[in-house]
Amino acid sequence: MKIFANVILPIPVERLFTYSLTAEEASSLAPGFRVAVPFGKSKIYTALVYEIHNNPPQAYEAKPIHDILDSTAVVTNTQIKHWLWISEYYMCSLGEVFRAAIPKTFILESETSIQLTSLENLEESVLPDDDFLVVEALRHQPTLLVEDIINIVDKKNIFPILNRLLKLGIIHVQEEIKELYKPKMEKYVQLSEDYEEDDKLEDLLRSLARAPKQSQAVLMLFQLEGSTKKPVKFADLEKEGNLSRAVIKSLLKKGVFKEYSVQRDRIEYKGSKELSALKTLNDDQNRALLEIKQQFKDKPVVLLKGVTSSGKTEIYVELIASCIAKKQQALYLVPEIAITTQLIRRLEEYFGPKIAVFHSKYNLQEKAEIWKNVLYNSDKAQIILGARSSIFLPFKNLGLIIIDEEHEVSFKQFDPAPRYHARDSAIVLGNLFNSKILLGSATPSIESYHNVLQGKYGYAQIDRRYGNVLLPEMELVDIQEQRKKKRMQGHFSERLRLEIEASLAEKSQIILFQNRRGFAPILECNFCGHSPQCINCDVSLTFHRNRSQLRCHYCSYHISLPVSCPACGSKDLDTKGFGTEQVEQELISMYPEAKVGRMDYDTTRGKHAYAKIIEAFEAQELDILVGTQMLTKGLDFRNVTLVGIMNADSLLNFPDFRAHERTFQMLTQVSGRAGRTKKRGKVIIQTYNPYHQILKQVTTGDFEGMFKEQLYERSQFKYPPYNRIIRLTFKHKDYNKLNEASLWFSQALRNLLAAEVLGPEYPAISRIRNQYIKHLLIKIPKKVPLVQTKKNIKRIQNSFDAISQYRSVRVIYNVDYF
Questions:
Q1: 552: Cβ contacts below 8 Å, ≥ 6 apart
Q2: What is the CATH number of domain 283-466?
Q3: How many helices (H) and strands (E) are present in the chain, helices listed first?
Q4: Cβ(626)–Cβ(512) under 8 Å?
Q5: Residue 429 is inside which H or E element, if any?
Q6: For domain 3-106, is the CATH number 3.30.300.30?
Q7: CA pair distance 401, 429, nearest whole angstrom
Q8: Cβ 767 vs Cβ 537: under 8 Å
Q9: What is d(CA 489, CA 350) in angstroms, rounded to the nearest whole number?
Q10: CA 665, CA 411: separation in Å to the nearest integer?
Q11: pLDDT tens digits for range 522-556
Q12: Would you say 159 and 232 are in contact if contact means Cβ atoms under 8 Å apart?
């Protein structure tokens, strides 16, 4: 009986592919193993075994697999079930989930290599120059990759060259799989067994009398072994003995030293071995903890609503400790990498080396090692602290999931697919493991709080800050009135300047929030009104002063700062609006003695950039920290007494049904950074509309009022949590074709679906990277089956793809659009 395997390929195709297996291969395979398979004419992909069966494919003849890549499964059955749910719910292919979930080092793709065959009867004089260069390079190096040849001939399209050489029989082309993951090996040195006896050692030292450096190396090895009582690293011997590499290698050649290698993790725990005892909880925290444990008996998901600085993290620590005591794994999700910097230190105090951190700043090799530690349930990975991608790790015994700042939009993946929400996906993951899930926030999302009121989630609350510290005093400042009275200096009101000066005089720290990076969003000619635009996107270029550049934040296109207007030649250029860079410059000019730092996307691109800025601010090396929304997410600074919000209106006037909810959340969160110790903090909110209802609710901390108003509006306009929303995005470089295709699709949806279809409409930025964009919104009532609606949408897309002129139009699904 023939045996077959259905495999998942890391490509955006909806279906699985079937390959044939020998009986021997079938006995070595199971779901979750990686195999190399041929695909297309010559390409080889890494595929994941989904199932093994005896049913041959009907439409094609199954090819045999190329190779088995694993001795044990690298993906668990629970993971595959979770991927299936993500694929079906978020309307993407299983291959896209596979590619997003697994470390890139595990997805081996073949590389095209070019090799020399024969140069007999070749007349080199008839070869074109480019062909001759390739042949000469192959004479010196037997194998070249496509990228190598591109560099040699300095052309992007090299396939005509390869075709000519193939026809002449000079080269042949083959596909080779390259292993990307390489374990980190550390070299150690020890003395050969031949010299372990004292008399032989004395003879050795006498023989090295004329080689003092080699004699020194032998003595240094003894000294290091005696002092550390540990094996001696090659690098330590070289450094401590002030020896050259050549000296040690000569002793290795003589057989005096022996060298061996040990595999090491790239990320190792470097903290103290002595762990701190868990902090004693206060009455409010104990009450909340007992309530959470009680709620967990009936409901797997509990929402903890605790005001900023109420000590939610200590409750998380207690729950993690209980989970670890049961020999279970715990997942701690945070929305932003910046938060992990402080959390790692706090959690390491209690749990030491049991913590593994997983986020996008780690390189591919480090991610692969964390994956393996989690897969094998290593002691180094009992607690996973990470961003949204952590939900894809291969947990074996997951007992607890904590989702901190659960309201954050950062938990939603926008591009590329799968466009999942980490909070919702983590809840499904928790249900697969039958684990407990705790959502924590000072400003819960409307959906989560609504689920509490509906009885779906449990609920616990902390109303007071730790140590009974008062919540910060909030004050709204009318910028319009300040400008009329000429009390503005740059973008700073008189009220904000006075508070900054008072805080600086008291040696307190200050946070200033402006949710836009760069110096200014627009550079404009005062004579003709021209503003430089991106050549690839329908957006003006943002001025970055420190680079003296105009830059597009969508496609990274940039030009140097023009001296004169490109349209009329006038040199009278001015900026409109302001970003964090301009706020920083104004602060430096106003307060030259103050140390000012900036925390935004531009200053945190490096792997450890977040940590450096946060550590500098914690150590009070900076007096003022200017930043974007990165500052709003759960950071704990003990010496901050003043928070200034430079312009609240930019958040309120955003074209999104969640704009008011997000404004309340963001302003409340950033305000919570102030006054977290004994002294009460102060928050100054600058706005052109101080009478706006949301701003009043922020200053009074009226979450219930905001919730009721937003819930009423959403019920009237059919938004979540009353309706499900799926947003379809159409992309194409041809403006007219995009219009026709999106209109056809929308009409088909209206004819088939029992749901409200809005659009298609162009968004505010209707062209990005030379692709025109149109959005279409589907509002699905709760009474309409969601699964059937998605099937109907897919049926329409199948018909859409069958129309030849629309096939090139890209359709992107965003389920539960946030």
A1: 534, 536, 537, 539, 541, 542, 558
A2: 3.40.50.300
A3: 26, 35
A4: yes
A5: helix 422-433
A6: no
A7: 9
A8: yes
A9: 47
A10: 15
A11: 899 999 889 999 999 999 999 988 888 999 989 98
A12: no
260-301: pLDDT as tens digits: 777 666 666 565 567 778 888 989 999 999 999 999 999 999
Contact predicate 618/635, CB 8 Å = no
Q: Which residues of 739-767 are buried (b: 16+ CB within 10 A; e: fewer)?
A: bebbebbbebbeeebebebebbebeeebb
Is the fold of 3-106 the same as that of 723-815? Answer: no
Domain ranges for the chain: 3-106, 110-177, 193-255, 283-466, 473-516+592-712, 520-577, 723-815
**Of 108, 178, 167, which Cα lies nearest the Cα of 143?**
178
Model confidence, pTM:
0.84
- Amino acid identity, position 626: V
Quick one: CA torsion of 480, 485, 487, 490, rounded to 10 degrees? 50
- Residue 508 to residue 620: CA distance in whole angstroms: 9
Tell me the backbone φ, ψ of residue 699, rounded to 5 degrees. -65, -30
What does the CA dihedral 451, 457, 458, 459 come to, rounded to 10 degrees?
A: -30
- pLDDT score, position 721: 93
88 token code pair: 């079906």
Q: What CATH homologous superfamily does 723-815 map to?
A: Ribosomal protein S10 (3.30.70.600)
As a residue count, the chain comes to: 818
**Phi, psi dihedrals of residue 334, rounded to the nearest 5°:** -125, 150
Task: Identify the helix (H) or strand (E) that includes residue 3.
Answer: strand 3-8
Average pLDDT, the chain: 87
Spelled out in words, what is the top-level CATH class assigned to the domain 473-516+592-712? alpha beta
For 332, list phi and psi in degrees, rounded to 5: -115, 105
Taking the C-alpha atoms of residue 593 and residue 585, their distance in angstroms, rounded to an integer, is 13
Short-list 262, 355, 368, 263, CA closest to 317:
355
**139, two tokens:** 């004479």
Q: Beta-strand (E) ranges in 87-127? A: 110-116
| pLDDT tens digits, one per residue of 310-359 | 889 999 999 999 999 999 999 999 987 766 777 888 888 888 888 888 87
Burial of 58 (0-12, 13-18, 19+ CB in 10 A): exposed
3-state secondary structure of 401: strand
Q: How many of the other CB atoms lie within 10 Å of CB of 732?
A: 20
